[in-house]
Design brief:
It contains two helices and five strands; from the N terminus they run βαβαβββ. It is α/β, with parallel strands linked by helices. It has a five-stranded mixed β-sheet with strand order 1-3-4-5-2.
Length: 82
């Protein structure tokens, strides 16, 4: 799998939605490793688009069985929540 990683600010991450880099179907997970496991299920063509923000958000956008989907890891796992 070929992926593109871009480092951007949180504001630019929000703007990605408006330039079609974030799908209207979003799966949120806490840990980046879970997002990467889910990303392996995405279609190989076209290659998933990956964005890592300065605020520890990881967004992977691709297609699952032809349906656009984004996977967003917010960087918070259950043991860090109060």
């Amino acid at each position: 799998m070929v992926v593109t990683i871009i480092h951007i600010s949180y504001i630019n991450l929000v703007n990605l939605f408006y330039i079609k880099k974030v799908a209207n179907r979003i799966i949120t997970v806490g840990d980046h490793s879970r997002a990467k496991v889910l990303a392996e299920l995405l279609d190989q063509a076209p290659s998933p688009y990956v964005v890592q923000s300065e605020r520890n958000f990881l967004t992977i956008t691709g297609r699952y069985k032809g349906v656009p989907v984004s996977i967003v890891a917010i960087g918070m796992v259950s043991n860090t929540l109060n």
